Amino acid sequence: MSVALEKLPSQLREQRLKEVDQVILRHRDRPGALLTILTEIQDLFGYLPEATFKPVAQALGIPVSQIWGVATFYTLFNTRPRGRHMIRLCENAPCHIQGTVAVLEAIQRELGIAPGEDTQDGEWGLELVSCLGICGVAPALMIDDQVYGNVRPEAIPAILDSHR
Amino acid sequence: MNSIALTIDGRPVKAAPGTTVLEAAATLGINIPTLCYLKDVNELGSCRICMVDVKGARTLQAACVTPVAEGMEVATSTPRTLRARRTNLELILSDHPQECLTCIRNQNCELQALAEAMGLRESPYEGKMSCHPEDWSTPSLARNPAKCVLCRRCVSVCQKVQGVHAIQTMERGFDTVVAPAFHLPLGEVACVLCGQCSLVCPTGAIHERSQVEEVWAALADPGRHVVVQTAPATRVSLGEEFGMVPGSIVTGKLVAALRRLGFDRVFDTDFTADLTIMEEGYELIRRLKEGGALPLFTSCSPGWIKFVEHFYPKLLPNLSTCKSPQQMFGALAKTYYADKAGIPPDRVYVVSIMPCTAKKFEAVRPEMNVGGTRDVDAVLTTRELGRMLREAGVDFAALPEEDYDRPFGISTGAAAIFGATGGVMEAALRTAYEVVTGKALGNLNIETVRGLEGIKEVSIDLDGLTLKAAVAHGLGNARRLVELVARGETDYHFIEIMCCPGGCIGGGGQSIPTDAEIRQRRMDAIYTVDERMTIRKSHENPAVLTLYEEFLGEPLGLRSHELLHTHYQPRSLYPGRRESK
Predict the structure, then answer these.
(1) Closest CA to A70 of A59, A57, A83
(2) Domain harbouring B293, CATH code
(3) Which range is least confidently modeled, A130-134, B299-303, B391-395?
(4) Is residue B300 part of a domain?
(5) Distances (CA, A) of B505 to A74, B176, B231
(6) I want to staple B328 with a disulfide (CB 3.0 to 4.6 A). Which of A95, B35, B272, B347 is the partner?
(7) C-alpha B448 chain-centroid distance
(8) Alpha-helical runs (H) found in B379-422
């Protein structure tokens, strides 16, 4: 599980926020830098800590409300600490027809968590997402950066094991 | 520009390029139904109610975002369009609480009106309902996202017109919700509480926080002496609550109505508006002569004050230290008036009738008190007063015209125009000119500061000193002007800012609907009120002069300092909870 920034000792927190400043400095002058900056901040923390919104807003001149709107719109962004490995299962129509529900049940059997939840040990998080862009191989899911198509429920234990 | 010829429902019509089908149809007297559409502010085509059939188009088109084209053939009311509109409305209603009878917007709801107009008789779609908590975190506004239809009008007004960005569309798909950053309550973010969102909300998703019950309780309490004050802009809008045409001047009926409700004294905020001109005028003259932060910004508009606190705290020294007329009234009601009337100050209960939701916040600011008791006890918006009068069964149209009580009911035309953008400036200039030069002003109408232009300028020769002034209304315009000031690119001495578009006549607590045409009508009415007044200059208000003689001494004197002036505080621009420093 990614560690919540606010739970770190203050000195360490300051240090980590300096890393955020560097991310901002690297990209701030490019138009449309927001998504890149948010992605890199998430790479640092595993999620987007609230304390990082203010420096981003100040640097880019974008209101915090709009950045929060962007962060909550995209399912690839986490706005709270999540499991170390994120499973993102497509819930759109083509995947649904091809068997998302059975795949979901298999994941739930294996990990004991519902969409939106994380395992107790912090290893796994599960989320239902919109189209991953590979409807041709539905049903589809992603684990971290890796994409899986034509997923059968019985393949789930092996897929999960490959990330353990 | 060449006009474009098309037909709508078989009738030929010509329209300028860029005109939408919706607008072109309106010129033929065809009102295509809309829900999310708000002229010039929210033209997104998101609700899909205004569907029309355009010959040759693959699908039905949203009239509000479809530009006219040469030779276009549009059909507005075909079986196909009517069915599509109904289906879309039924889908919207499938995630809307069916609580119309107990809703604050009952009978003044655009969604309800659409359902009636389209003749819906059942809700065929049942399923999951959005579930978001209500938000009662501010004294001015309350949010109930369950009633939101995601039209985004509030977001557009907050961002595009006011430039405040307090709310935004969050999440996606079924989870979409209009909310402040981090899903925080409104009271914890940089919201100025102007209430423009509540003015444009088609449903009851965001609305004023009613104090009607508190006022009924005070009126029923024999131990209370309940006095009421009426803001300038309410006398040209309250009639709309009773179906009168926008711009109806109802001053006398307003007074009579308040007496019927049982208020012990009916006074006028216009009286303290005149007083504000005296205090603020002398403050300006003092800053010009003795130094002090310039330009001086007016401080009547509480949404503007909170905007400065959040967004431009460095400019706080430039704000006039004058309390707003509402607060000055309260402070004097509980001192000078209580004393004169022989009533213990703690028995005096002050209610204000305001066009404004931010006034509710202003009234509960901790600094707004006299010796520990609040200047103002309850603030009712125009809409709330309308509701009280309907509840009491007052036949508003049949009321006689009555006069305000004395002494706080005596006022001038200069005070009345506080209700429109540029009015405070005009009133101040009428007084400043005569006080500084000792000469009478020939023409009292200072036209250059009137009207709905976003930013207006005026300069006036005060015997050698050229006073340069500017006026802005709507915080988007205010921000443009303030940016120039902050960069040192202006040499204005005095700037009037009103938070809401059009000034208080377009306030967030005014009657719904409030649109550009209605603002203009109310504004015209305000200037008619001014023209009809015997006295039109604040420094000639006899009650104000008596007040100085008997109680205050002189403008900016010790008592004024204690009762009528205040200071403001910087507030955070960035919301923060757990993690923030």
Answers:
(1) A57
(2) 3.40.50.1780
(3) A130-134
(4) yes
(5) 41, 33, 10
(6) B272
(7) 22
(8) 382-391, 413-416
Nearest to A68 among B170, B172, B580 (CB): B170
Which residue type is seen at A39?
Answer: T
B367 is catalytic: yes
ipTM for this prediction: 0.92
**What residues make up the domain containing B31?**
4-93
Closest chain B residue to A62 measured between Cα atoms?
Answer: B165
pLDDT of residue B581 exceeding 70:
no
Are the C-beta atoms of B5 and B71 separated by less than 8 Å? Answer: yes
Residue B362 annotated in active site: yes
Strands (E), B474-511: 494-498
Candidates B170, B186, B192, B307, partner chain A, best to mutate (most A CBs within 10 A): B170
Evaluate whether B122 touches B88 at the Cβ level (below 8 Å).
no
Cis peptide before B513 (omega within 30 of 0): yes
- Same structural domain, B242 and B123: no
B46-71 per-position pLDDT tens digit: 999 999 999 999 999 999 999 999 99
The backbone torsions φ and ψ at residue B511, rounded to the nearest 5 degrees and listed phi first, read: -60, 145
**Which residues of chain A have a CB within 8 Å of the CB of B157?**
none
Question: Could B574 and A57 be called an inter-chain contact, meaning their C-beta atoms sit closer than 8 Å?
Answer: yes
| B337 falls within a domain | yes
Q: Are residues B532 and B469 in the same domain?
A: yes
Tokens of B284: 């300006």
User: Are A66 and B165 inside 8 Å of each other by CB?
Assistant: yes
Which CATH number does the domain housing residue B47 bear?
3.10.20.740
What mean pLDDT comes out for the span B441-447?
Answer: 93
Architecture of domain A85-161: 3-Layer(aba) Sandwich (3.40)
Calculate mean pLDDT across residues A92-97. Answer: 96
Average pLDDT on B288-293 reads 92
- Given the structure tokens 């059968």, which residue do they identify? A152
CB of B152 closer than 8 Å to CB of B36 = yes
Tell whether B238 and B186 lie within a shared domain.
no
**Is the minimum CB–CB distance between B128 and chain A shorter than 8 Å?**
no
**Residue B311 and residue B304 in contact, taking contact as beta carbons nearer than 8 Å:** no
Beta strand extents in B116-167 (DSSP E only): 141-143
